[in-house]
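Example record for the data management plan.
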Amino acid sequence: MIRVVLPQHLQALARVGSEVVLEVPPPTSVRAVLDALEARYPVLCGTIRDHTTHKRRAFVRFYACEEDYSLEPQDTPLPDAVARGTEPFLIIGALAGG
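Corresponding structural encoding:
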């Protein structure tokens, strides 16, 4: 079971709390987690990544075990602590400006 922490706007859209628990088959990667999240909460399709290209949306970041996975290939394996559910996979809404 994978723990996924969502930003407030996605929590409201999916009508869930700050953390959801998903069953993700191995190998555990960003793509596998996002596929499972979108399958369970179809309302989130297109909000985290583009419908067609499946590329990460601007201003959305992914973190696991205090490391940024936002720019890594989506098939990069996530740390074992995330795969075991001891550490969450974080989806963060980034801000820009000065």
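Summary line stored alongside the record: The chain has a mean pLDDT of 93.
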